[in-house]
Design brief:
Low-confidence stretches: 1-26
Shape: elongated
Helix content: 10-25%
CATH class of the largest domain: Alpha Beta
Structural class: alpha+beta
Radius of gyration: 25 Å
Mean pLDDT: 91
Distance between the termini: 37 Å
CATH superfamily of the largest domain: Carbon-nitrogen hydrolase
Length: 419
């Protein structure tokens, strides 16, 4: 990867659309920072870019910093920067940018804001931070750092800080069904309750696991069907009627293989995607259910959603995989399980989570694990409106959603076979 031929753009530091500095290689405000000289990275300027190199130092920590004093308390700001990197073994935790707010005396104000939103542009990566300045902020230190990356080399350009309008609310009305039907055709009973009890304006209707088998005497394989198929057609009619997305658990047949699957239907009644349950309990394994092997995330007209199913909640990686793949709301059809684990999955991954089950409440959690709606009464619906744009800051930790994606160590090998 060559840097010299790609760093021809003049990198500017911009506030409210006005340039505060010329090309970065001419701006004296950028300085090297490191907690100790012995682990300081090598910094240099190349063709208008800010370069940081690990220099072979195992515990290398630091990089470029610049202080801007024209910050309005409570105002929203966007930092954008483009970088070209090589030699990093786990880029999310080794290479990062922060906005570290400062008060009028130069002390830290609030908590630093980490950049986690990235977009790949060929061999480059564009990183974005959007955040409000704390009420006592008078300035901000822009930080472009590396950490524990002895072979890493990164060149930053197109760095800009702009004042922006506060993001608008992204409200989503979620309805989770609480029903355990008995007798033939349980799907009809779910549809009837949804038609009657789900309020107008609902964006997502969530049904439980195994809606084609619950309350019957049939076996999983007997009710399994291709997807899309008869049940997705029936759910599609409900989706069109309610003008809502619908998620439900059914049993999928793919040749001779049967999966425990959650399906996603869009507002127009079209099949939009599926998730095959990854963690299969022994009862389903003994009944011939095959596990899935991926955590897909789907873009809807209100945000990104992922699906989990029941036993998945006992393990950390399904929710983590969905969150790191961009899910903002996890929809989980469930039979029964532990509420503490469902709450933990929402909180540890900083996502909204909704559940619909039989031996489990219909419930909706926010990203800090608080219950927003709950029902254990058969034949009812738990309904609430969530705001996907809402920030959940913690006093001592700041915006953990941003920190989660930068600090999560997916590079540490936990393979039990090596023990």
């Amino acid at each position: 990867m060559r840097y010299e031929g790609h760093m021809r753009y003049a990198a500017l530091f911009v506030l409210t659309g006005m340039a505060l500095a010329g090309p970065l290689d001419q701006d004296s405000r950028w300085k090297l920072w490191s907690p100790r000289g012995e682990i300081a990275p090598k910094v240099s300027r190349a063709g208008g870019a800010l370069v940081v190199e690990g220099g072979g130092i195992p515990g290398v920590c630091g990089g470029w910093v610049m202080t801007e004093t024209q910050v309005k308390p409570g105002g929203w700001y966007r930092l954008e920067a483009r970088y070209l990197a090589k030699g990093f073994t786990h880029e999310p935790s080794q290479l990062f940018s922060r906005l570290d707010w400062r008060d009028a005396n130069g002390r830290r104000a609030g908590q630093p804001e980490y950049g986690y939103q990235i977009k790949h542009e060929g061999e480059y990566t564009r990183l974005t931070i959007e955040a409000p300045a704390p009420a006592n902020a008078a300035g901000v230190e822009v930080q472009l750092w590396i950490w524990k990356a002895p072979k890493g080399r990164v060149a930053w350009d197109q760095v800009a800080l702009n004042a922006i309008v506060a993001p608008a609310a992204r409200n989503v009305k979620v309805a989770a069904i609480r029903l355990r039907p008995k007798g033939e055709d349980p799907v009809a009973k779910f549809i009837e309750l949804s038609r009657r009890a789900v309020p107008e304006g609902t964006d997502v209707v969530l049904l439980p696991e195994g809606i084609t088998v619950v309350g019957t005497t049939k076996k999983y394989a007997e009710v399994s069907e291709v997807i899309p198929g008869p049940t997705t057609e029936r759910l599609g009619a409900l989706a069109r009627e309610k003008k809502a997305w619908v998620v439900a658990g059914i049993y999928e047949r793919d040749g001779g293989t049967v999966y425990n699957t959650a399906v996603l239907i869009d507002r127009q009644g079209r099949y939009a995607g599926k998730y095959r349950k990854v963690y299969i309990p022994r009862e389903e394994m003994e009944a011939g259910i095959t596990p899935g092997d991926e955590y897909p995330v789907y873009a809807t007209d209100f945000g990104n959603v992922g699906m989990m199913i029941c036993y998945d909640v006992f393990f950390a990686d399904p929710a983590r995989g969905l969150a790191t793949n961009g899910a903002e709301l996890i929809l989980m059809p469930i039979w029964g399980g532990k509420e503490t684990l469902a709450r933990a999955r929402a909180e540890e991954n900083h996502v909204f989570m909704a559940t619909s089950g039989y031996d489990f409440p219909a419930m909706i959690y926010d990203p800090v694990g608080e219950t927003l709606a709950r029902s254990e009464v058969d034949g009812t619906v738990a309904v609430t409106t969530i705001d996907l744009a809402k920030r959940y800051d913690e006093r001592w930790l700041g915006n953990m959603k941003a920190r989660f994606f930068r600090e999560l160590r997916t590079d540490v090998d936990s393979d039990l076979r090596k023990r």
